[in-house]
């Protein structure tokens, strides 16, 4: 079996040539999008506002009808399955609209559990644990419509989790959660994935959450996939040649100007009594020249380290959202696409 076959065998979600337009077809939300998601992985679906993430997720859920494309979830074609696809996927979409606002939190959990053919009485303990984990147990008997936005969000999450579907879509799962609940939720998702081999597709603008949870990220822009990589590889790909130099002294304006003339200084920062200088250097040997210039000005370097980009930096580079290139295709995205072709 070659690697492509192995990959296909393990894919629990497969999207092929998806296109979704709205209105008379002039709004192209998703354009020829294809990807697979392996069972037991957490994949981030990212992109700036209007990139086409929600339209992609809604097409997979069968909530909107795609113009073109084939979608399979756990071996079931979404087109053929109709409403039955809900046995395979659960989702928390924006605004907790997938729960019943007139039912209590506990009633919602029982309802969604029974949807899956599970007798909620058998799962009472599990439901209590889940409510405690998300810190909504004290609201268990309140109707959802009276809850705060964060509590509604947690209820929606709990309802998606109790359904135990092979694939779970989460749109901004930590939005409105306090720090502790956000942390607990991340750990709970990790547990689901590793212990129960479930698959999570996560859409979030919080790159910390994405970097913490996702093995791989798919970045969309303008309805197309611009990047599809493992998080570690992606960060490595975007490692810049930037160095952070910490100097044990305040740096005079004269010294700063001299350094800026000689080197590509990106930023100056103060760290207590120390000064931090971030500088880009294509040639590592230039670090020695930098040390020489510091010595000339009687400055004592404390450390020199390579600056590691985080997912936020990568995202901004890939989507061109840093304002450098608002119109055209981002240069790095084009390079990545070339590399993958
Ligand atoms: N029901 C609709 N009718 C018309 N246009 C729509 C509709 N839903 C989405 N669009 C358009 O399709 C494009 C993609 O929208 P979509 O909601 O899929 O993006 P998104 O990446 O989820 O954005 P966000 O991060 O803001 O939720 C946008 O241009 C949006 O205006």
Automatic annotation (TrEMBL):
Domain ABC transporter: 13-247
The keyword Metal-binding is assigned to this record: no
Highest taxon of source: Archaea
Keyword line: ATP-binding, Nucleotide-binding, Transport
Name of the protein this chain belongs to: ABC transporter ATP-binding protein
Family: Belongs to the ABC transporter superfamily.
Region (Disordered): 319-341
Compositionally biased residues, Acidic residues: 319-332
Species in which this protein is naturally found: Halorussus limi
Keyword Cytoplasm: no
Record Pfam families: ABC_tran
Single GO MF descriptor: ATP hydrolysis activity
CDD domains assigned: ABC_DR_subfamily_A
InterPro entries with a match to the protein in the record: AAA+_ATPase, ABC_transporter-like_ATP-bd, ABC_transporter_ATP-binding, P-loop_NTPase
PROSITE patterns, sorted: ABC_TRANSPORTER_2 (PS50893)
